[in-house]
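How a chain folds remains the central question behind the approach discussed here. No coordinates are needed to read the tokens, only the vocabulary itself. For completeness, the protein is quoted in full, as a sequence line and a line of structure tokens:
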Amino acid sequence: MAEIDRTILERECAVLCNYLIEQQPTIYVVNKYLDGVEAKKLTGPHLDRFEKILAEISLRAPRFIKTIDTYSRLFNSNSPFRKRLILLLAVLESSSPTHVYLDSVAVQNNRVFYFRFAKQGVVFFLNLLFALIFLLPVHFLFKVFLKGK
């Protein structure tokens, strides 16, 4: 793996960790993430331009990762970006101390649970709307007119 790719992927790992668990990754997590990305060939020149744009947006504007994640889940579930996100989640789930954050139950009050559940639904809907307005047309443009170049 080239040094520049490694630096970008380390930064991506940190940004995605912040999105998933609101913490910085440990060295172990970063190394396992890099190993997994390389083993599964989830980055490199073979990716289409839309995938490169998603990765660039996630690094430059991390607040849009939830929108990218929503879009990728519903309309592009085999995307390398989504696969890298799932890979990182698996690494976090299986490593200490981050597994505690993912495996713990934070709410014991039903009202609080339902409020948070409803709030997450609204956030999901707004991200979906944003993705449909901005990402779907761009993806369509690259797939149909530019043939993914």
User: Anything to note?
Assistant: The longest helix spans residues 110-145. The mean pLDDT is 90. The helical segments are 3-21, 27-40, 49-60, 65-75, 80-93, 98-103, 110-145.
